[in-house]
Design brief:
By secondary structure, this protein is α+β, with helices and mostly antiparallel strands. The protein has five helices and seven strands.
């Protein structure tokens, strides 16, 4: 991985690269993770404003919490997206946790998952979130390895019927 990867606020400057990242996920039939990847972005300025509003708790659906989104940029291209939920609900304690992240399919295998999580954890600490919950499918060995490499401790596993799979819960920092 190039040392030049950095976490940036969403910006219209990366419109084409961001849209190409989303297209890679959809062309491969992969789920759009983290969930803001599914937000409409035809009007890119409105999309950027929506993400900024979400961070302030503006315009979020009932049951959602304020959440911040960042893009991992390397060599001028968006190679990953992360999303930090500012607090947990009972539902997020079961599935979702504080942080979701995804790496562009063609950029995987270069340590970018480890880097985007490391940088997003730093953002969580800046917001006073010292104990971070992450969840992932037990079958997603790559995500589990990224979490473990960032100090994650496996706390629980549970079959989630709505997903039809076992979900792991990992804590970084003291479990709360």
């Amino acid at each position: 991985m190039a040392a030049a990867a950095s976490l940036v606020a969403p910006s219209a400057a990366y419109k084409d690269s961001y849209r190409a990242l989303v297209r890679e996920f959809t062309d491969r039939g992969e789920p759009l993770v983290p969930f803001p990847l599914s937000f409409a972005n035809e009007n890119f300025e409105a999309f950027i404003a929506q993400l900024a509003g979400c961070a302030q708790g503006i315009g979020i659906p009932p049951g959602f919490v304020p959440h911040s989104t960042w893009w991992l940029v390397e060599g001028g291209e968006v190679v990953g997206v992360s999303n930090l939920r500012h607090r947990l609900t009972d539902a997020l304690r079961i599935e979702g946790g504080h942080i979701g992240y995804g790496i562009r399919p063609t950029a995987r295998g270069r340590g970018l998952g480890r880097e985007i999580l490391r940088l997003t954890l730093a953002e969580a600490r800046r917001r006073g979130i010292e104990s971070v919950l992450l969840t992932c499918a037990k079958a997603n060995a790559a995500s589990a390895a990224v979490i473990a490499a960032n100090g994650g401790r496996l706390a629980a596993e549970e079959f989630i019927a709505s997903r039809g799979e076992v979900v792991q819960r990992w804590w970084i920092g003291e479990e709360t």
